[in-house]
């Protein structure tokens, strides 16, 4: 174990003996689904940063985060691990905040999740992203958790919202907050944590790990560590109103892109040149199998002599293109569902941060912020209705013929092309 880098050491809790956990990768988020079909509360795990430039395995493949997510799913919650921009440095705080916001949308849009019962759990440098949520306290946020957090930026780095400044403020909504504090914390982190505790007062619950160090949940395999992690999970379940023994007959569709999770161990090392959304290497704790999109069969050119021999192949191609479900169609269907539900944040979360929309008149929107500015008035006015008439799938493209009811001109026939990569929409073209 000592020959491994710290981040590849095993999680302190055993997670090998529980039932099935299914994992689905959606863009930069890994979703861990419990067995059964009950709609449940959910936890989003937010890793820290920045990371070394030569990092070989990215955080959502670390045994510690796979372990937390698996343990939560084994106890009946949907858990998610987000990979965010803080990997690349503290100058990426704004990008990381956008990534976490998008991940929240993905998690709340998942059909297994009760969107009104979500917890956010920040670790280490991820604590710098917690202040905004402590300040805004959306209705769906049931509780917020911090484990050995970094709560103040170094000199010269602009912070977002200081957690200590907002936790003690009177808000319309009481938000339960849990701090897991280690006794052997680094001095530069311990000071801001002490200020946070002083400001939090009665609003703050604390789990102390007196002999623990930063990263105790993967470095200190002791009863004290296991007890602290177990207490934190118990606390989250209690505040999410979750009963792991409850059953439900709610008809929730079973995700297709899933796999069984084996015991959380050390993943195989891999080399990567792009920190964001890398091609996942095989890992012991969770192997995500992605369904392949169908490759269209080439169709011979029509001629008077070839029609009889080509007709059977053409029929097969058309049947496949119009009826086969692909990972791309599942993403587009989620986009449509969030649009119809007037859930702007969940809608935007299904788009890449650099997504491009091209309209029939040549106008182009680039990036999630531009999409927000364009769609916000439609969502606010409740004008989010589209009637799907026909769909065709070709690889990572989804082509739809539909009727729009979101304009002042009445029903408008339209053709739209969606391009999906790594579980996110990267391009949309409105052709008519």
From TrEMBL:
One Gene Ontology term of the molecular function aspect: hydrolase activity
Organism in which the protein naturally occurs: Kribbella italica
Chain intervals for the UniProt region annotation (Disordered): 244-307
The organism's place on the tree of life at top rank: Bacteria
Name of the protein in its database record: Dienelactone hydrolase
InterPro entries assigned to the protein according to its UniProt record, in alphabetical order: AB_hydrolase_fold, NTF2-like_dom_sf, SnoaL-like
Pfam families cross-referenced by the UniProt entry: SnoaL_2
Organism placement in taxonomy: Bacteria, Bacillati, Actinomycetota, Actinomycetes, Propionibacteriales
Compositionally biased region (Polar residues): 245-261
Stretches with biased composition (Low complexity): 267-292
Keyword Hydrolase: yes
């Amino acid at each position: 174990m000592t020959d491994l880098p710290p981040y590849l050491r095993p999680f302190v809790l055993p997670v090998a003996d529980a039932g099935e956990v299914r994992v689905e990768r959606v863009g930069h988020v890994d979703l861990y689904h419990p067995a059964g079909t009950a709609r449940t509360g959910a936890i989003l795990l937010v890793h820290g940063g920045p990371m070394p430039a030569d990092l070989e395995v990215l955080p959502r493949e670390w045994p510690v985060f796979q372990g937390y997510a698996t343990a939560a799913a084994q106890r009946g919650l949907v858990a998610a691990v987000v990979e965010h921009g803080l990997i690349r440095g503290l100058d990426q705080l704004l990008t990381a905040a956008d990534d976490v916001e998008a991940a929240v949308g993905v998690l709340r849009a998942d059909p297994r999740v009760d969107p009104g019962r979500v917890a956010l759990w920040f670790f280490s440098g991820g604590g710098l992203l917690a202040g905004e949520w402590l300040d805004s306290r959306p209705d769906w946020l049931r509780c917020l958790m911090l484990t050995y957090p970094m709560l103040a930026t170094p000199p010269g780095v602009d912070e977002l919202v200081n957690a200590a400044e907002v936790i003690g403020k009177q808000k319309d909504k009481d938000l339960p907050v849990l701090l897991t504090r280690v006794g052997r914390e680094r001095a530069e982190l311990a000071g801001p944590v002490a200020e946070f505790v002083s400001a939090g007062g009665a609003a703050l619950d604390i789990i102390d790990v007196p002999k623990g160090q930063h990263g105790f949940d993967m470095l200190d395999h002791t009863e004290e560590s296991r007890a602290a992690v177990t207490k934190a999970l118990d606390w989250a379940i209690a505040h999410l109103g979750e009963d792991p023994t409850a059953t439900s007959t709610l008809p929730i569709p079973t995700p297709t892109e899933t796999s069984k999770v084996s015991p959380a161990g050390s993943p195989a090392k891999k080399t990567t040149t792009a920190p964001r959304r890398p091609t996942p290497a095989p890992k012991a704790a969770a192997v995500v199998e992605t369904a392949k999109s169908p490759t269209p069969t080439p169709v011979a050119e029509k001629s008077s002599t070839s029609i009889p021999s080509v007709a059977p192949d053409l029929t097969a191609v058309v049947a496949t293109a119009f009826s086969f479900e692909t990972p791309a169609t599942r993403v587009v269907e989620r986009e449509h569902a969030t649009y119809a539900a007037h859930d702007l944040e969940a809608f935007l979360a299904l788009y890449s941060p650099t997504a491009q929309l091209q309209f029939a008149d040549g106008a182009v929107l680039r990036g999630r912020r531009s999409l927000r500015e364009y769609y916000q008035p439609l969502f606010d006015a409740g004008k989010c209705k589209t009637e799907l008439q026909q769909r065709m799938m070709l690889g990572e493209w989804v082509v739809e013929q539909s009727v729009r009811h979101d304009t002042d001109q009445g029903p408008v026939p339209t053709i739209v092309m969606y391009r999906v990569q790594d579980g996110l929409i990267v391009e949309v073209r409105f052709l008519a």
